[in-house]
Design a protein that fits this description.
about 300 residues, alpha/beta, nine-stranded mixed sheet, binds zinc ion, metallopeptidase activity, signal
């Protein structure tokens, strides 16, 4: 398969597009704004980038979440044979968590966390810090046990779906669909809840995710933003997303059904922090077009 080289374009800023609806159908491309980790590994004659490795810091507090992270890491490293994907550019390896507090970012890595983040309407959160327009320098993925401890969401398939998706947002992947249909990828909004709680649909990546990664990464950067094998430096604190949703910045876009939002924040060091929010069914249904940060999310 021929892959066209993707150039490191500076993406135009999307200003004032709050509440613009996503397309509900599977799209030809689903990169997240062209964001990607800079990497100097070569591209071979078939157009595939030689793999580089991203560290996933395991700050998870339960064996169950650790198992879900492990499965997600393995799935993203090894495309199913049926996908007929020649290779994948981004390999993951799980390392000891390095977040100092509250899932703070650590340069060159994705830190993965769980916690009882409260009755705030979100199941999962993925943030990336961007410099130079498109290069990811650090990321975090958080799972909210306030909801995952409730009957509706507390099942292995829903947990796997959200873990697989939040981690992959930090690779630079967007959703394939946000309308609730299953494209059988964790990058969709099929809900493994209720009568579908036992379904393993949409708990793993599909072939299109790997095709997309190969497109996003089919170029050689002059620098690298993934951490080398040893020490990593903690990030400047002011790029971190905190439990306060106001720290997410401005709402840039939201799906028509209200389940998926992207926020953007400009930081004092010149970088941007972008955050994908995976809202609960309840938060989305209550008012699909609202900025769910400003609603009360009472316990059901
Ligand atoms: Zn690049
Ligand atoms: Zn998402």
């Amino acid at each position: 398969m021929f892959i066209t080289a993707y150039k490191c374009l500076r993406m135009p800023l999307l200003v004032g597009l709050a509440l613009a609806a996503f397309s509900g159908t599977s799209q030809a491309t689903h990169s997240w704004g062209g964001y990607h980790w800079a990497s100097t590994t070569p591209v071979n004659s078939d157009g595939y980038k030689e793999p580089f490795t991203l560290k996933l810091g395991n700050n998870l507090t339960t064996a169950d979440w650790t198992m879900h992270l492990s499965l997600a890491s393995t799935d993203w490293n090894s495309p199913d044979e049926s996908f007929k994907v020649a290779s994948t550019p981004l390999m993951t390896t799980i390392v000891t968590g390095q977040s100092k507090r509250n899932c703070s970012m650590v340069k060159g890595t994705t830190q993965v966390c769980n916690g009882t983040y409260g009755n705030n309407g979100w199941l999962g959160l993925a943030s990336i810090n961007i410099t130079g327009g498109t290069h990811i320098t650090q990321g975090t993925a958080k799972m909210n046990d306030t909801y995952f401890s409730r009957t509706t969401y507390n099942n292995p398939n829903e947990r796997q779906h959200v873990m697989c998706q939040e981690v992959a947002h930090t690779f630079g992947l967007d959703h394939q669909s946000t309308d609730g249909s299953s494209q059988n990828t964790c990058m969709d909004y099929f809900s493994n809840t209720g009568t579908n709680a036992g379904s393993t649909l949409s708990t793993r990546p599909n072939a299109h995710d790997f095709d997309e990664l190969n497109i996003i990464y089919a170029h050689v950067d002059s620098t690298t933003t993934v951490a080398a094998s040893t020490a990593t430096a903690p990030s400047a604190a002011d790029v971190d997303i905190t439990d306060d949703p106001h720290s997410w910045g401005t709402l840039m876009r939201q799906s028509a059904n209200g389940r998926s939002s992207v926020y953007e924040r400009f930081n004092r060091d010149g970088s941007r922090t972008l955050t994908h929010v995976y809202w609960t069914i309840e938060a989305a249904t209550n008012c699909p077009s609202c900025d769910h940060r400003f609603e009360s999310h009472e316990q059901h």
